[in-house]
Amino acid sequence: MWSAVGRRLKGYMRGRHVQEFRHYIGNEHDLLHSVLEKTKKDFGTIDFTQPKHLLVKTRQEQETLRNLRRVNRVAGVIRAREEFPEVNVTHAFRDLKGVQHRALFHMGALEPYDLNIDDETLVRVTLSDIQRHIGVKDWIMWAYWDRFLEGRPNRLQMKIMVDNLEDIEGVRRGANLRVLEHYVWCDVYSSPYPRTLSIDASDVSVGYNYLIGDLRKMLPDHIKLAPTYDRADTTAILSCDNTVLSGIYDSYLDENFDATRWHDFEMTSMRVPKGEDIDATGDKTQPREKLLSSAEIQHMKKLAVHLGKDFEELKEEMLTAREKNKKKAVEMPDFSKKK
Predict the structure, then answer these.
(1) Per CATH, the architecture of 52-148 is what?
(2) How far apart are CA 9 and CA 15, in angstroms?
(3) Is the pTM of the predicted complex or chain greater than 0.70?
């Protein structure tokens, strides 16, 4: 999907028409943002006004799996539920291939389907599972469907999506965001319902988690968590772990930020090649700016923006710390030489 978006953007922004379009769309970043926003909206919503309609037939006794494969049809089962019995049906291979594609690439397992059985009965279902042959390519053997009943709990597995990652308090302070639970089981009582569960974790700070209990509070009235989560309110969904940047940020807020203690550790964690522009001979006639490499200066600018500190002031602290460490290295005796 993302490669297709990239090809579209390259097609729009190449050639002589670039300057003509720039007046209307602003720049490439705005175009990419609008495309991704539309993709996100299409990914997270389900169109209930026009549900997918599939024509199926009642399965007969002589229709074995091999016989169905010869005529490009696939067996299926609408599972029994409460007062509704089990129904064995057959699908067109082409229809079920499209269902499988949407389930794999567009979270289509949550989409409702209207199965028209022999042009007589219309049943609304959701996809439960598709079984394929382990040794034969492109042989779909079975399709399992669950009835979707309005006003009753319908068990669905829904994906968790985090909105506005850059606005999370812990991420802004340099924490490492980890998603611990990607899916949750929910009981949906009525339609329409979303394809994904969007959560707002902007208040999660460094060292804190977003819990199942927090997700339970933001769910709409017609969606409830499955009973398996009744005693799991303290289970973490998201975690903001401490990092070097978050430690620097907290130290700076507590007014005990020490450049001599943090700058070497920070540059090492960024994998900056130190010493490429630094003269290690200890020549004091060398300019002070040469004590910092160009790569370190670029990372220092980002660090200054992150800490909300003036770049020149932070650079002066770094130079002072580097001169101090260099002086200690020069004064340290060499124990490798024998007297």
Answers:
(1) Beta Barrel (2.40)
(2) 12
(3) no
The 154-162 sheet, strands edge to edge: 196-199, 154-162, 183-188, 223-225
Topology adopted by domain 150-242:
RNA Polymerase Alpha Subunit; Chain A, domain 2 (2.170.120)
- pLDDT tens series, the chain, 339 aa: 444 444 444 444 455 444 555 545 455 666 666 666 666 666 667 777 778 889 999 999 999 999 999 999 999 999 999 899 999 999 999 999 988 888 877 666 688 899 999 988 899 999 988 999 988 888 899 999 999 999 999 999 888 888 877 788 888 888 888 889 989 999 999 888 888 888 888 888 888 899 999 999 999 899 999 999 999 999 999 998 888 777 777 766 666 666 555 555 555 555 544 444 444 444 444 455 556 677 777 777 877 877 777 888 888 887 777 777 666 554 545 544 444
The answer to whether 174 and 243 have CB atoms below 8 angstroms apart is yes
